[in-house]
Automatic annotation (TrEMBL):
The lineage of its organism: Bacteria, Bacillati, Actinomycetota, Actinomycetes, Kitasatosporales. InterPro entries: Ald_DH/histidinol_DH (IPR016161), Ald_DH_C (IPR016163), Ald_DH_N (IPR016162), Aldehyde_DH_dom (IPR015590), Aldehyde_DH_Superfamily (IPR050740). Pfam families: Aldedh. Transmembrane segments: none annotated. It comes from the Bacteria. It comes from Streptomyces rhizosphaericus. Belongs to the aldehyde dehydrogenase family. One of its GO terms (biological process) is gamma-aminobutyric acid catabolic process. This is NAD-dependent succinate-semialdehyde dehydrogenase.
Length: 489
C-alpha cells in the first residue's frame, strides 16, 4: 500500500527552518541541504543548512532564556512535558510516517519509536517535581551540610539518525525537567522528525528560546564554536565512539560537562540450558530492531555447541522469512539501510568474514538499487579475527560462533573496547547472575532481547560512553549539586 498523499501532507506541514528564539527561520546564509528517502534514493525536501553564525544565535537565545526557565515552577515544566507526551501519542501515525520516510525503518517500528520516545516525556514530567536536596548535621555538630540541585545551564544536544525521535526526547525530556535551555543539533539525514518534535513542544507551551534547533550539513564547524563558548555548560552526545572522542577532546578546553552515549558491540549468549524458542524471539528483537542499526544491537552471537544447530536453524528460518521493502508499505519488516555507505560497509564486513572461512546460511548479498537494501543474513563459523566480530555492524547480519567453555566465552565477549549491552539466555539462575556480574557492559538483558526502557538507566561502560540517560538518574546529567556550608553557633 502506498502512502503518497499522506506523505506529501506530512512533509508539507513539517517545518524546514532553524528554530531560534521561538521562530522558525532560514539559515543566515540562505543555504539548504537535501533530505533523502533511503528506500528510493530520492530527495524528500530541502532543509535549512545552519552555519556557525546561526548556531551562535541559537546559543544566544538559549542563554537569554536560561534564568527565567530555571525559575519556572517545576510543575509547569512537568505539565509542558506531559502535554507534549499527549500530542506525540495522538499524532503517532504522522510522526511514524515521517520517521519512516527519512530513516527507512518499517512503519510498525516507527510507531514503536514514537511510543518509546514519547514515554521519556511522561517519565521526566514525573521527575521534574522530585528534584531533591539534602540537609545534614555535620559530624562535628557545629554546622549544617545543605545540598541543592540546580540546572546546569544551556546544553548542546547532538543526536544520531538511527532513532530520530527518541534520541532527542531522551535528552530534551530531562533537560526540560531540570530547567535547562538547549540547542539540538539533529543528524543531517533525519532533521525532519526533530523539527516536527520542536513544533509539538512549542504547541505544548514550551517558552521561546528554551529549545532551539540547528540543522546543518557541517556538524563539526557548526558545533565547535559552541563547545568553546563559555555560555554553553553541557554537551550531551549520542553517536559513534569516533566522533565522541573528538567531542570529549574539544570539551576539555572549557572543561565542559559531557554525557556520551557511544557505539556498542553487544554479545548475545545462548547457554546450553536456554529456552531456545525464547532465545530466538529475543535474538530477532536484539538483532533486527532498526534493521540492525542500533547501538544495542546484538553484534556477535555466542552459542553453546549443544544448542548451536537448533538455534541457528530456527534463527535462519525466521530471518529468511522476513519481508524486505520500503518501510511505508504495511507488512514490510525490514527497510533499507540509511545510505549507500552503510550498505557497502555491511557488504564489506560480510565479504571479509566469508573470505576468512565463515559460511552464509541466508542472505549475504546486497540488493541492487534503488534504495539501500541488505537482506537479513546469518553467518556461521565466524572467526574472531574477522571484522564482523570486532566492529559495530549496524546492519541485519547475525555472525555466529560456538563455545563449550563458559570462561573462554566470557573472555571473548569482553574482548572489545565497547561495553554497552550484552544479552544472556539461560534457565540457570546462578549462571545468569555470574554472567551478569562479569560481563563488562552497562546493561545486561537476561532472557530478554529488549533492554531499552525510559524508567531504567541507559548507558555504557568502557568506550561506550559516560553517564546514563533515563531512569531516576537520567535527570542528574542536567543538574549541578551545590553544597552550602551553614555555620551554626
Ligand atoms: P555519528 O556519525 O557519530 O553522528 C552522530 C551525530 O554527531 C550526528 O548528528 C552527526 O552529524 C554529528 N557529528 C558528526 N561529526 C561531528 C563532529 N565532528 N562534531 C560534532 N558533531 C558531529 O553517528 P551516526 O552514524 O549518526 O550514528 C550511529 C552511531 O551512534 C553508532 O555508533 C551507534 O552505536 C551510536 N548510537 C549510540 C547510542 C547510545 O545510546 N549509546 C544510541 C544510538 C546510536 P551529521 O549527521 O551531520 O554527520
Amino acid at each position: 500500500m502506498s502512502n503518497t498523499i499522506t506523505e506529501a501532507a506530512v512533509l508539507n506541514k513539517t517545518e524546514k527552518g532553524l528554530l531560534i528564539g521561538g521562530r522558525f527561520r532560514a539559515a543566515a546564509a540562505g543555504r539548504t541541504f537535501a533530505v533523502e528517502n533511503p528506500a528510493t534514493g530520492t530527495t524528500l525536501c530541502e532543509v535549512a543548512d545552519g552555519s556557525a553564525e546561526d548556531a551562535l544565535d541559537a546559543l544566544g537565545a538559549a542563554s537569554a532564556a536560561q534564568s527565567s526557565w530555571a525559575a519556572t515552577p517545576p510543575r509547569e515544566r512537568a505539565e509542558i512535558l506531559r502535554r507534549a507526551y499527549q500530542l506525540l501519542t495522538e499524532r503517532t501515525e504522522e510522526i511514524a510516517l515521517l520517521i519512516t520516510l527519512e530513516m527507512g525503518k518499517s512503519l510498525a517500528e516507527s510507531r514503536a519509536e514514537v511510543a518509546y520516545g514519547a514515554e521519556f516525556f511522561r517519565w521526566f514530567s514525573e521527575e521534574a517535581v522530585r528534584i531533591r536536596g539534602d540537609w545534614t548535621v555535620n559530624p562535628g555538630g557545629s554546622g549544617r551540610i545543605v545540598l541543592m540541585r540546580q540546572p546546569v545551564g544551556p546544553c548542546l544536544l547532538i543526536t544520531p539518525w538511527n532513532v530520530p525521535l527518541a534520541m532527542p526526547t531522551r535528552k530534551i525530556g530531562p533537560a526540560i525537567a531540570a530547567g535547562c535551555t538547549m540547542i539540538l543539533k539533529p543528524a543531517e539525514q533525519t532533521p525532519l522528525t526533530a523539527l516536527m518534535l520542536a513544533g509539538i513542544l512549542a504547541e505544548a507551551g514550551l517558552p521561546d528560546g528554551v529549545l532551539n534547533v540547528v540543522t546543518t550539513s557541517s556538524p563539526g564547524p557548526v558545533t565547535e564554536p559552541l563547545i568553546h563558548d563559555e555560555r554553553l555548560r553541557k554537551l550531551s552526545f549520542t553517536g559513534s565512539t569516533e566522533v565522541g572522542r573528538i567531542l570529549i577532546a574539544s570539551s576539555a578546553d572549557k572543561v565542559l560537562r559531557t554525557s556520551m552515549e557511544l557505539g556498542g558491540n553487544g554479545p548475545f549468549i545462548v547457554c546450553a540450558d536456554a529456552d531456545i524458542d525464547a532465545a530466538v524471539d529475543g535474538a530477532m528483537i536484539a538483532k533486527m530492531r532498526n534493521i540492525g542499526q542500533a547501538c544495542i544491537a546484538a553484534n556477535r552471537f555466542y552459542l553453546h555447541a549443544d544448542v548451536a544447530e537448533e538455534f541457528t536453524d530456527k534463527l535462519t528460518d525466521r530471518m529468511s522469512g522476513m519481508a524486505v521493502g520500503s518501510g511505508v508499505d504495511e507488512g514490510v519488516e525490514v527497510g533499507p539501510l540509511i545510505d549507500a555507505g552503510q550498505r557497502d560497509k555491511v557488504a564489506a564486513l560480510v565479504d571479509d568474514a566469508v573470505r576468512r572461512g565463515a559460511h552464509i546460511r541466508t542472505g549475504g548479498k546486497a540488493a541492487s538499487g534503488p534504495g539501500y537494501f541488505y537482506p537479513p543474513t546469518v553467518l556461521t563459523d565466524v572467526p574472531s579475527s574477522s571484522r564482523l566480530a570486532r566492529e559495530e555492524i549496524f546492519g541485519p547480519v547475525a555472525p555466529i560462533s560456538t563455545f563449550t567453555d563458559e570462561q573462554e566465552m566470557l573472555r571473548a565477549a569482553n574482548d572489545t573496547e565497547s561495553g554497552l549491552v550484552s544479552y544472556v539466555y539461560t534457565r540457570d539462575l546462578d549462571r545468569a547472575i555470574r554472567l551478569a556480574e562479569n560481563l563488562e557492559t552497562g546493561m545486561v538483558g537476561i532472557n530478554q532481547g529488549l533492554v531499552s526502557n525510559p524508567a531504567a538507566p541507559f548507558g555504557g561502560m568502557k568506550q561506550s560512553g559516560l553517564g546514563r540517560e533515563g531512569g531516576s538518574v537520567g535527570i542528574d546529567e542536567y543538574l549541578e549539586v551545590k553544597y552550602v556550608a551553614v555555620g551554626v553557633a
